[in-house]
Specification:
Oligomer: heterodimer
CATH architecture of the largest domain in chain B: Orthogonal Bundle
Distance between the termini of chain A: 61 Å
CATH topology of the largest domain in chain B: MetI-like fold
Helix content of chain A: over 70%
Strand content of chain A: under 5%
Number of strands of chain A: 0
Number of strands of chain B: 2
Strand content of chain B: under 5%
Largest interface: A-B, 59 and 56 residues
Radius of gyration of chain A: 26 Å
Strand order of the largest sheet of chain B: 1-2
CATH class of the largest domain in chain B: Mainly Alpha
Largest sheet of chain B: 2 strands, antiparallel
Number of helices of chain B: 11
CATH superfamily of the largest domain in chain B: MetI-like
Mean pLDDT of chain B: 85
Chain lengths: 265, 271
């Protein structure tokens, strides 16, 4: 019998041994420093567990009836906000995404558009909403402006990446017919990015509805305001109802939008 | 693409008459819906404030500049907390998302009738509740602080990572699994040698992508008391200390751009 067996071993994920050990060390020091610098008040958590239990039980049974008018009004407001904000946001994103595509825009416009996109992506919707509520007063208009602006960052970024990936020969064929710039974009570029365009719009509609539920918390109108009011009044049954309504609408919107996206593909 | 003959010359049009009419109808309906919704919004808007907003904005900018740069040094701890909320939250979220994804993928789920819908329900409900709402609930349970933020971000990440991961699992190459199976491997071995290597790239890119998103989300969970730079932002806005607010906003932009840069680097290194 042969003592030496040939044993197969899996290849390690990272080939360089030094790098592997270094990464492990780095991660463990990071975790340690997080653990040391984070103040976790265990006393408060222990206290909070029974309180949390009461809190969660206060949600049951969800009460749809007492404030049904407000819930309905909030949902419809959210829906209007979402639709208008998505359309406005997309209309603004189209020129921005053309500007942010390397193969179309001159350098100056490119950097300008990229700047707009980065700025719009850096701030979370809620932070933007705080400022727009301050500037434009409470209500759905501030929420709509917030959602439109944050749509730009998402939509223009992804669309411009798609524009950069277009088939050049098709666009050139249009150009060689002597088309103007607008005709070139309309017949050479637009048909190529259209499927992605529709998919992204539906996706963003879905995201905007979800976000509209939060910007209401800082005064941006919609179902979020209803939720916030319910919390402020300590009407947790109503709050539970609002959350359930949000979840079910998001499910419906997501299901339809993903179904539609599959159909288009 | 019809060529239309007129008296003595031909013109090309992109669509025929029927398609033109359809397109026109779609645009008409779209405009109708848009104006209807906008009308409803505008009926709830006090236009005086909106038209006055540019003055308000100029006033606000005037108060924000120059930023109080010294204030930055007190921000270092909140920024560190924010990074931690995002990182630890993402880690927890992805760790919980892995089993959920295996349960909800069509080809790996142990029971299609019972566990799969349950796991899908967990994923969807985690996705539909925004992290701020999660934080709002958790602050009441575990108290204000970083921990509430970490759990909120983690819970929100489960749905996102779970969904993308189970889609990745459903798209794996069955032949490779069959090859592993043919060697007489058991279930666990099929998992580690057949499935995991196939979804590992997707898994890494999903978790990095989510980390990038979570940095942004972690800046706002503090607004409801769940730790990080949001607490500072909320306090300074409450104090109307706009010169400090501008410093916070700058710090957020820097953090986000930094995280985007790191993500791009890691993604390039992996792919």
């Amino acid at each position: 019998m042969n003592d030496k067996k040939v044993i197969w071993k899996r290849k390690p994920l990272i080939k360089n041994r030094l790098l592997r050990i270094g990464l492990i060390l780095l991660i463990s020091t990071y975790l340690l420093s997080v653990f040391l610098t984070t103040e976790i008040d265990w006393q408060r958590i222990l206290e909070g567990i029974p309180r949390g239990k009461n809190f969660i039980f206060a949600f049951f049974p969800p009460d749809f009836i007492t404030r049904s008018d407000e819930i309905l009004a909030g949902i419809f407001e959210s829906l209007w906000m979402t639709i208008v904000a998505t359309i406005v946001g997309i209309l603004i994103s189209i020129p921005v995404s053309l500007g942010a595509a390397k193969n179309i825009a001159p350098k100056f416009v490119y950097f300008l558009s990229r700047g707009v996109i980065t700025l719009s992506r850096s701030f979370q919707e809620v932070i933007l909403a705080i400022f727009f509520v301050k500037l434009m007063g409470f209500g759905p208009f501030a929420g709509m402006v917030t959602l439109s602006l944050s749509t730009i960052g998402f939509f223009a970024k992804l669309l411009s990446e798609d524009i950069e990936d277009i088939n050049k020969s098709q666009a050139e064929a249009i150009k060689s017919t002597g088309s103007s710039w607008f005709q070139w974009v309309n017949y050479g570029v637009q048909p190529q990015v259209m499927p992605r365009f529709i998919g992204l719009s539906l996706y963003r509609l879905d995201i905007n509805f979800r976000e509209s539920a939060v910007i209401g918390i800082v005064g941006g109108g919609g179902i979020g305001s209803t939720l916030n009011t319910a919390f402020d009044r300590y009407e947790f049954e109503t709050a539970a109802a609002v959350i359930i309504v949000i979840i079910s609408i998001v499910m419906i919107v997501e299901y339809t939008s993903s179904h539609l996206r599959k159909l288009i593909k | 693409m019809p060529i239309i003959k007129q008296k003595d010359y031909k013109t090309w049009k992109k669509f025929d008459r029927k398609r033109d009419l359809q397109n026109w109808l779609c645009w008409f309906l779209g405009t109708l819906i848009f104006s209807f919704c906008f009308g409803l919004i505008s009926s709830k808007t006090i236009w005086f404030y909106v038209f006055d907003s540019h003055n308000e904005a100029l006033d606000l900018l005037g108060r924000m500049f120059p930023p109080e740069t010294n204030y930055f040094f007190t921000l270092i701890k909140p920024i560190w907390d924010t990074l931690n909320i995002a990182t630890i939250g993402t880690t927890i979220g992805t760790l919980i998302a892995i089993p959920l994804a295996f349960l909800s993928a069509n080809n790996t789920t142990p029971s299609k009738k019972f566990l799969r819908p349950l796991a899908l329900f967990c994923i969807v409900s985690s996705r539909s509740i925004n992290s701020v709402i999660w934080a709002l609930l958790l602050v009441a349970v575990v108290g204000p602080g970083v921990l509430a933020g970490i759990i909120a971000i983690g819970l929100r990440s489960i749905g996102f990572c779970g969904k993308l991961l189970y889609e990745a699992i459903e798209e794996i190459d069955e032949n490779q699994i069959e090859a592993i199976e043919a060697t007489g491997a058991n279930k666990a071995q099929i998992m580690t040698f057949g499935i995991v290597p196939q979804i590992l790239p997707a898994f890494t890119s999903i978790s990095i992508y989510r980390w990038d998103i979570n940095i942004r989300e972690a800046t706002v969970v503090g607004l409801v008391g769940a730790g990080g730079i949001g607490i500072e932002l909320d306090a300074q806005i409450g104090d109307l200390a706009w010169a400090k607010v501008s410093v916070i906003l700058l710090a957020i932009v820097v953090a986000v751009v930094f995280s985007e840069w790191i993500t791009a680097k890691i993604r390039k290194a992996i792919i």
